[in-house]
């Protein structure tokens, strides 16, 4: 009899099975699916934010940008945004303030995307960059 119990233990007979049930698998699938859907809605917003951030930093590296007229700086900024297909930033979202060594450019904008039904995801972005006479990033 002992020999038979020993063989059954080695073969795994009489042990409880482990694993996920169909219901728990569907719950996990729903959570992962919602996270992927949310990521698809949020990724373009942040991709655009990084494009705007990159455009402001590239403006800051332009030599003599601190001595330029704000309208010319704004034109250069929107040309950079046009290349990266950014559509959320409008001219009224860009403000310039005079500082000792040039200009401080502020870009404040909001992106709203529908999520589900009447629920929206709202991203509020605020970017500030010093544009100095000597160029280079601060």
Q: What are the salient characteristics of this protein?
A:
3 strands; three-stranded antiparallel β-sheet; elongated; single chain; 3 helices; 138 residues; alpha+beta
Helix content: 40-55%
Largest sheet: 3 strands, antiparallel
User: How many helices in DSSP terms?
Assistant: 3
* Overall spatial form: elongated
Radius of gyration: 28 Å
Q: Look at the helices and sheets and give the structural class.
A: alpha+beta
Strand content: 25-35%
Helix and strand sequence: HHHEEE
Distance between the termini: 82 Å
Biggest β-sheet: strands ordered side by side in the sheet: 1-2-3
Annotation, overall tally of beta strands: 3
Walk me through this protein's architecture.
This protein is α+β, with helices and mostly antiparallel strands. It has a domain of 96 residues. It is 46% helix and 25% strand. It has a 3-stranded antiparallel β-sheet, with helices on one face. It is elongated and about 95 Å long.
